[in-house]
Design brief:
It contains 4 helices and 5 strands. The chain is of the alpha+beta class.
Length: about 210
């Protein structure tokens, strides 16, 4: 996986920012996931691939159905008149299999709809990004699920005039990788302008 970094810095027009907030420079940095970043993958392995989970549930379902058929056969063997035991066992064990697939279906729909990752706290993420040295304000923060165990993020960092944009980028991406496990990132850095205070698009939603 790679991390794309989009840096724009410089002053914007005094009359309005048009939501690009100006830009004198534009750079991209493609960092490899395999580079030394001090991140342990032991935690990542806790999340099993959704395809593996689905295959396991499928095998488990076949096993449960076989057990149901066996139980029904034993009941009918002992009591030949209880022929209803076969459809009853089939129905009951089918319900059990359906219940085990609901979590997989939920996770698949969550990824399909690019939902916000369940294992990330939005308020904590906002606080951490806003606490980066030299960052006056953040906006346009978007986080979504690419897969069950991979997330993506894009955000704008409005920095003070004395702040080094490259240092802010490095700090932000390192924090996102090490604390939140987010490697697919687009971080745009721009100079803080007072007009951002009144810009509706520059406000971070409160949860």
């Amino acid at each position: 996986l790679s991390s794309g970094i989009n840096a724009e810095y410089g002053g914007g027009a005094a009359g309005g920012h048009g939501h690009s907030h100006g830009g004198e420079g534009h750079s991209h940095d493609q960092g490899s996931h395999e580079e030394g970043h001090g991140h342990s993958h032991a935690e990542d392995n806790k999340k099993v691939n959704i395809n593996v989970r689905a295959a396991f549930v499928h095998v488990l379902g076949d096993l449960v159905q076989s057990i149901g058929v066996l139980i029904a056969a034993v009941i009918i063997k002992v009591q030949p008149t209880w022929i209803a035991a076969d459809p009853i066992c089939t129905f009951v064990f089918s319900i059990l299999v359906l219940i085990t697939t609901l979590t997989i279906l939920r996770d698949a729909l969550h990824v399909l709809m690019e939902g916000f990752p369940r294992d990330i706290s939005y308020p904590s993420l906002v606080t951490d990004l806003s606490s980066i040295p030299g960052v006056h304000k953040i906006h346009s923060l978007h986080v979504w699920s690419l897969t069950v165990d991979k997330n993506a993020l894009s955000v704008h960092l409005a920095i003070e005039d004395k702040c080094n944009p490259e240092k802010a980028l490095v700090y932000a991406n390192k924090m996102l990788r090490e604390k939140y496990g987010i490697y697919q990132t687009t971080v745009q850095v721009e100079r803080w302008q007072e007009i951002m205070e009144d810009c509706n698009s520059c406000q971070v939603p409160t949860i």
